[in-house]
Write a structure and sequence with these properties.
alpha/beta, about 15% strand, binds pyridoxal-5'-phosphate
Length: about 350
């Protein structure tokens, strides 16, 4: 049995999800008449109390579209130095939006209002790029799945309002934060101009992300999605999986968080574990001693049928998900003890 903890993207559709996909009523989404895509977009917009939504193939695309619509060539995007939009989107902001970043040094990837305020360039200074957007990530992947307090986001929103700047959320794993804080998606819909959420992570869909925002924003994003080749046709088969996920797979994220904490407990006693990041949601990051390279360690884990990823020279990441059960956890514990 291979225990795949490389990412929460590795899940396969469940029986119920497959049935929902199989039964989906579909149409041509480029013509705007796939009823299942329309239903998913309406459902998500309603959940967040936002005007409109756009169903896309990936979270990279929803982030890139949002940045493209909010910014203009030569402008600057404020985000943390650990942000997915900076580290893991192939330089897309330079390519798609001709914009640069101002990277901040947050608390495990989380920014505070003062940092954001200090980072906004004076629009009257012609030397500096004009700040066009502030982007936050919740939960924070590179920070080990930590999440924001809503009150901290409210303060950042206030700064954005004062400076007339839009605020974007990379909420690839937002639902992981919401089940921990018991906040509602509507709390987030009120605070952000745009939100990207992934259906293909903890929610267990094979493909798909949603971009949420105002009607005119989504209209522009839809045009840019087409330009990028992301206009898709009978996408309702995939949207059906999304509807199923929003209805069935949110509350159970708590189980993933509990198992992540269990992994932490297992790691505590092991000789090659130097330090474990706090485990807040479904991501576990730990540090190896300087004598062990993460790349070597990941290869040795694979020999013991455990999948994990290199997250730094001496950092390793595990992510729990809906295909990782208690049975897998027991097997994980047994196998990791064999790694020398
Ligand atoms: C996974 C992820 C994305 C989007 O990833 P895709 O693989 O393109 O769907 C965006 N932001 C964060 C924080 C992520 O973890």
């Amino acid at each position: 049995m291979f225990i795949d903890l490389r990412s929460d993207t590795v899940t396969k559709p469940s029986k119920g999800m497959k049935e929902a996909m199989f039964m989906a009523e579909v149409g041509d989404d480029v013509f705007g008449d796939d009823p299942t895509v329309l239903a998913l977009e309406a459902k998500a917009a309603d959940m967040f109390g936002m005007e409109a939504a756009l169903f896309c193939p990936s979270g990279t695309m929803t982030n890139q579209l949002a940045i493209r619509v909010h910014t203009w060539p030569g402008s600057e995007v404020i985000c943390d130095k650990y942000s997915h939009i900076y580290l893991y989107e192939g330089g897309g902001v330079a390519l798609n939006s001709f914009s640069s970043f101002k990277l901040l040094d947050g608390d495990r990837g989380r920014l505070n209002a003062q940092q954001v305020r200090d980072a906004i360039n004076n629009p009257d200074d012609i030397h500096q790029p004009t700040t066009s957007l502030v982007s936050l990530e919740n939960t924070m992947n590179k920070g080990g799945g930590c999440y924001y307090q809503l009150s901290d986001i409210e303060k950042i929103r206030t700064v954005c309002n004062e400076k007339n700047l839009p605020l974007h959320l990379d909420g690839a794993r937002l639902f992981n934060a919401l089940v921990e804080t018991n906040e509602s998606p509507k709390n987030y819909g009120e605070l952000f101009d745009s939100i990207s959420i992934c259906l293909s992570k903890g929610l267990g869909c094979p493909v798909g992300s949603l971009l949420l925002g105002k009607k005119d924003f989504i209209k522009k994003a839809r045009r840019s999605r087409k330009v990028m080749g992301g206009g898709w046709r009978q996408a309702g088969f995939l949207a059906a999986a999304g509807i199923y996920a929003l209805e069935n797979n949110i509350e159970r994220l708590r189980e993933d968080h509990a198992r992540a904490k269990q992994i932490g407990k297992v790691l505590e006693g092991l000789p090659f574990v130097k330090n474990i990041y706090p485990i807040d949601t479904n991501i576990v990051i730990f540090e190896l001693p300087e004598t062990i390279l993460a790349s070597d360690f990941v290869a040795r884990m694979k020999e013991q049928n455990i999948g994990c990823v290199v997250f730094g020279k001496h950092l390793v990441r595990f992510v729990t998900h809906l295909d990782f059960t208690d049975e897998h956890l027991a097997e994980f514990e047994k196998n990791i003890r064999k790694v020398g």
